[in-house]
Amino acid sequence: MIVKGKVALVTGASSGIGRALARLLAAGGANTALSARSAGPLEQLSGELPGSLAVPADMRDEGAVRHMVEAAYSHFGRIDILVNNAGRALHGALTGVDAAEYRDLLDLHVVGPLLAMQTVVPLMRGHGGGVIVNVSSGTTLLTLPGVGAYSSSKHALNSLSKVARRELAAENISVCLVYPFVTATNLGGGAAARGPAGTDLVPDTAEYAAALVLDAIESEREDTYAAKVPGGRPG
């Protein structure tokens, strides 16, 4: 999909990959609806991007997710692109994972994106189609100690995405997955920047990961991998 003149809704846009992607989309001529929990940084970014819309929302809150999509649609009159990017890290041995924290992670990485897709798909249908990009993780291609909770939540997102891809293909709605490597963002800082198993890794920049997402949008490729992801096929 050519992004110029299109409307893109990006979650997790206040920092990291989402913020870098918002800037790339705006530079390419897209109209951007930006969402994140952090209203201050979100408003600051929106101020940098003329014509953009800031819609603060918590992806763990069903009402907030549906309002986010509806607000973007009401403002722009259409949504051509949805990028489910909001996320956070959770590291540690499985024996020490807190159940409540894991449920919270599943709400953020799985239920929230599902709700966003459910809300945006009827709107995309009304305008002849669209592109949905769900940001996964390269950890889903590996078996790494210390990231089981995080990786399993992204595995669930992968499964939802692949099924949605089949279900929506006939309606001209592409569902794409992007698999970043360890990324130098607020999400990937600290332990993640040292690697899932504590090994020293040189993280990719948020700008590099955002470029992968933009490439997925423009190519509508099913799966796009960071070059450093073991076992992946770089997009």
TrEMBL record:
<keyword id="KW-0560">Oxidoreductase</keyword>
<dbReference type="GO" id="GO:0016491">
    <property type="term" value="F:oxidoreductase activity"/>
</dbReference>
<dbReference type="InterPro" id="IPR036291">
    <property type="entry name" value="NAD(P)-bd_dom_sf"/>
</dbReference>
<dbReference type="GO" id="GO:0016020">
    <property type="term" value="C:membrane"/>
</dbReference>
<dbReference type="Pfam" id="PF00106">
    <property type="entry name" value="adh_short"/>
</dbReference>
<comment type="similarity">
    <text>Belongs to the short-chain dehydrogenases/reductases (SDR) family.</text>
</comment>
<protein>
    <submittedName>
        <fullName>SDR family oxidoreductase</fullName>
    </submittedName>
</protein>
<dbReference type="InterPro" id="IPR020904">
    <property type="entry name" value="Sc_DH/Rdtase_CS"/>
</dbReference>
<dbReference type="InterPro" id="IPR002347">
    <property type="entry name" value="SDR_fam"/>
</dbReference>
